[in-house]
Amino acid sequence: MPELPKSSHFVARESHTQPRDAEKPPSESDTASQQTANTNNEDNTSDVPDGGSRAWLVAAGTAGILFCTMGYTNSFGVFQAYYMSHQLQHETPDRIAWIGSLQNFLIFASGAIGGPLFDRYGAKVMYPASVLYALAVMLTSLCTQYWHFMLAQGVLTGIADGLLMFPAMSAMTHYFNKKRGAAMGLAIAGSSLGGVVFPIALGKMLTESDIGFGWSIRICGFVMIPILVFSCLTVKARLPPRKTSFFLPSAFKNILYDTLLASIFCLLIGMFVPLIFIPTYAIQHGVDPTLASYLVAILNGASVFGRILPGIAADRFGRLNVLAAMGAGTGVLVLVWPRVGGTAGIVVFSVFFGFTSGAIVSGATVALSMCPDSLEDMGTWMGQGMAIASLAALVGPPVTGALVERFGGFTEVSVFGGVFTLVGAALAVVAKIRTPQGVWGRV
Q1: CATH number of the domain that 219 lies in?
Q2: What is the pLDDT, as a whole number, of residue 134?
């Protein structure tokens, strides 16, 4: 999309009626098609409900999807510590981290397919994805070798995750506008709730019972199935399908969009570092292994508030302002991480880190939703954008694992993650330059 002046660009975004490629001389068929599209936009996107039973059911269904997907994958710190002392004890930490890294990468990368599929076919694309996800979890329970875990937990779970998450989050934008930050924060808090339930359950079953690894994972899968069914029944698209091209490469001509993607890339690198390695760090510092596995739950429990409260604040004080502030707070915490010692100190660190980092995923999603000119394109813009930013999830954890293996401590790890996170926060501030309100504005 050709770059518009700041003011007209944002007017287009608010009204959702500005046609793309408006500078091209239209043919009669193009004019008729554009008139139809404009009429649809006026009828379907200008009156976003911002509430009501239908809208909140979509939010509840999205929360259910994120509970089962990101809530489960955010528990990989428990798996990392468990694999290092059981099935994969002969593997190095960075090789084990590649499983979680590939999983997180594919969650966001597969959004490049899941987002456009939602724009073209609606929420029904979630039905086969739900079946694939449940199958991936069950297959993980049967794994015994490294390549088994890589295929089932790394590849299959990651792809199914993204094919579920992005249609659900894109549907949210059809129902919320002025309250989008708060609604998205509430929905994404489902991932934090899952990040509390699954680590505690897995910690109990894996370390304090004789259930065994296989049935521990299968029990998690059986918990997910009814929630996925509920979510598939409640998440619905409000707008008609988009009939234009599958991908929208013109989105990358939007400087605000590109700057936000660079910001999110850097923020995700720093966010994933403690999220994956906090149990390992705690065990090395004398924390009981069972309590160490609970640290992921404590961290995710704090991120419930970190997703809801900053989401509400974002609607009032500016979405980019809150994203930058929470990113800066996360960066500072990552830098001081190696100086934290003792059980109480590590627990307190987990709480603060969970709160600040919890706002990054929800804040990034809401920030990206500012960019498209039309809600019918929302899934594609979000999906293909997060696919680019997902390279952070592919790079961050393995580099972190290699640094732990090379130096035997976490000082170098904290510098790596903390600097990237602070750069991401700075880029969120730079992105504000592309808005009419400017760098000091409430946006």
Answers
A1: 1.20.1250.20
A2: 95
